[in-house]
Design a protein that fits this description.
single chain, 15 strands, 9-stranded mixed sheet
C-alpha cells in the first residue's frame, strides 16, 4: 500500500443543489445522442506503438478477472487501489509490479500521466465518484455494470464523459457477440414480424436480499478501511458476517448458488442487496440482459414502469420481483412491452419446448409472426425461411478488446457511456418502481416522474460524509 499521506478531506456540501444539478443534467441530455467519434474516444487516444497503462480501483471482486482480461487485451497493469488489503491480495500478488493505493483520489493524484486508463470495480454506490474523478483527468474508463446507482449520477457521468472525450465502456454482456448480432439481424429482417413484447429473466439474486439490518457492531478487520468503503452512503456500524442459520443465508439454498459465496453482511460481495450500496438483482443483471434487446429493438427510454415484488423492506431489495416497462413507438417499430423477472420467477413455458423448462436466464421476443429465444427463431418452420440470412453486422463480442481498441482511437466500444446511460437508467427506473410500488410515468427529457413525488425523491439522492461529485 502507498505510504503517502492521504489528501486532507475538507468540508464540502453534502450534494450539489438540485437546481444546479437539473440545469447541468437536462442540458446534457438535450444534446443529440449520436455523438461524433472524437467524443467517443478519438480525442485523447494513445499514440500508436505506445503502451496503455491501466489502473484498477476495487480489485478484489469481479474486477480481478476483468483486469486479467484487460491485460490479455493489451493493457499494462501499473496501479492497483483497494480499501481491503486481504480481499485485494490476489490482485496484489498477480501484479506485484503495480503500485498500490487505498484511496482512489490519492492514486489519481500520484499517478498523473503515468496511467492512461482506469477500470472501476467498486460497489455500485461509488461507481460515479471514481468514474467522474478519472474522467476529469482525461483517463479512459471502463466501469462494471451498472454504470451508477442513481439516475442523477448517470446523467452527470455522461456529461463528464462527453467533456473528457475519452474511450468508455460498461461491462454489460456484449451486444456485438455472434448471438447478439444474429438476434439483431433476424429481428431487423422480420424473422418474427413486428416485436411487441419481450420477456427477460435472471436467476439472481445469488446474495442475500429481503433482510433487516443487523443490530450492533463488529470490530473492523485490520487492513480494511470501512469509512472509505462507505464513501457517500449513509453512515452505519460495520457488521462482519451473518451467523450460521440466519435467514439471509438460508434463502440462498434454493438457488443455483447452493451455498453463499460469502457470509458477509456488507463486504465483500453482499453489498448488492442493500439499496444504500447496490441495485439488487435487476441492477446487477439488467444491463446484461437488456443490452441486446435495446440494440435489436432500438430502445431508449420507457414511458411507463410498474412493478410487483415479494415483501419489501426499507433497506433491501426484495427476494423476487417482476417489472414491466412500456416503450413508446419508435420511427420504424411499434410500441413494445418488456417484462423483467428475477428471484426464480420466469415467463410461462413455451409450447414449442414440449414441456422443457426455460433456461435460468434469457430473453424471449414475441413477434406478430413468431418468437425468438435468444437468436433461435420459433417455430422451426419459420426459422427455416431465414436460415440463409446474410450476416451483415461485425462480430466483436469481447468487452475488453473493444475498449482497448477504442482507447487507441478505433471504433467506440459496444457499451460506451452514451449507450450505457439509457441502459442503466432503465434498470434504475425499475428499482424505483419496486421501491415505491407505484405505476410510474417517466419524462426522460425532464428527468422526472410526472405522477409521483416519492419516486422523484429517488432520482437524485444526496451524498453523505462530506463526499461530492463536484470535488473529486
Amino acid at each position: 500500500m502507498s505510504t503517502r499521506p492521504r489528501p486532507q478531506e475538507t468540508a464540502m456540501p453534502a450534494a450539489y443543489s438540485r437546481r444546479q444539478f437539473l440545469s447541468t443534467a437536462l442540458a446534457t441530455w438535450a444534446t443529440v445522442q449520436i455523438v461524433p467519434g472524437r467524443v467517443l474516444g478519438a480525442e485523447g487516444q494513445t499514440p500508436p506503438g505506445s503502451q496503455l497503462n491501466l489502473a484498477g480501483v476495487g480489485v478484489g471482486g469481479v474486477a480481478f478477472g476483468q483486469l486479467a482480461s484487460c491485460e490479455k487485451a493489451g493493457f499494462n497493469i501499473t496501479a492497483l487501489c483497494d480499501v481491503d488489503d486481504a480481499y485485494a491480495k490476489k490482485a496484489f500478488d498477480k501484479w506485484p509490479q503495480a503500485r498500490r493505493y487505498r484511496d482512489f483520489r490519492e492514486m489519481l493524484q500520484a499517478e498523473g500521466n503515468r496511467i492512461d486508463a482506469v477500470h472501476v470495480g467498486t460497489p455500485d454506490h461509488t461507481h460515479a465518484l471514481v468514474t467522474v474523478a478519472a474522467l476529469r483527468r482525461k483517463k479512459h474508463v471502463c466501469c462494471v455494470k451498472p454504470l451508477t446507482r442513481t439516475i442523477g449520477d448517470s446523467r452527470l457521468v455522461l456529461a463528464a464523459a462527453r467533456q473528457a472525450g475519452v474511450a468508455t465502456q460498461v461491462t454489460a454482456q456484449p451486444n456485438t457477440s455472434e448471438v447478439a448480432c444474429r438476434t439483431c439481424e433476424l429481428i431487423w429482417a422480420g424473422a418474427i414480424g413486428a416485436v411487441r413484447e419481450v420477456h427477460v429473466w435472471s436467476n439472481r439474486p445469488l446474495w442475500p436480499q429481503g433482510m433487516q439490518r443487523p443490530p450492533g457492531a463488529d470490530p473492523i478487520p485490520a487492513g480494511f478501511d470501512w469509512k472509505l468503503w462507505l464513501g457517500p452512503a449513509p453512515d452505519r456500524p460495520f457488521k462482519d458476517q451473518w451467523p450460521a442459520g440466519h435467514y439471509a443465508l438460508e434463502q440462498l439454498k434454493g438457488t443455483s448458488q447452493k451455498e453463499p459465496r460469502h457470509k458477509s453482511v456488507y463486504h465483500p460481495w453482499n453489498f448488492r442487496g442493500w439499496w444504500d450500496f447496490g441495485t439488487g438483482a435487476l441492477g446487477d443483471m439488467g444491463c446484461h440482459y437488456f443490452n441486446t434487446p435495446f440494440r435489436a429493438l432500438k430502445l431508449a427510454h420507457p414511458s411507463r414502469i410498474q412493478a410487483s415484488s415479494t415483501k419489501l423492506l426499507a433497506e433491501t431489495a426484495p427476494l423476487a420481483s417482476i417489472v414491466t416497462y412500456d416503450f413508446p413507438e419508435r420511427a420504424d417499430q411499434p410500441p413494445v412491452r418488456m417484462i423483467w423477472y428475477d428471484g426464480g420467477l420466469k415467463p410461462p413455458a413455451l409450447a414449442e419446448f414440449e414441456g422443457q423448462p426455460l433456461p435460468e436466464g434469457g430473453a424471449l421476443y414475441i413477434g406478430d409472426e413468431g418468437k425468438m429465444l435468444g437468436a433461435t427463431v420459433l417455430p422451426a418452420a419459420r426459422a427455416a425461411k431465414f436460415a440463409d440470412l446474410p450476416k451483415t453486422l461485425p462480430r466483436r463480442g469481447d468487452t475488453w478488446a473493444e475498449w482497448y481498441a477504442a482507447c487507441r482511437g478505433g471504433e467506440a466500444a459496444g457499451c460506451h457511456f452514451d449507450w450505457a446511460g439509457p441502459l442503466t437508467e432503465t434498470v434504475l427506473l425499475g428499482n424505483i418502481a419496486i421501491r415505491t410500488g407505484q405505476r410510474l410515468d417517466w419524462d426522460a427529457a425532464q428527468m422526472k416522474f410526472t405522477n409521483s413525488a416519492a419516486a422523484n425523491a429517488l432520482v437524485v439522492e444526496p451524498y453523505q460524509n462530506g463526499w461530492s461529485l463536484d470535488t473529486v
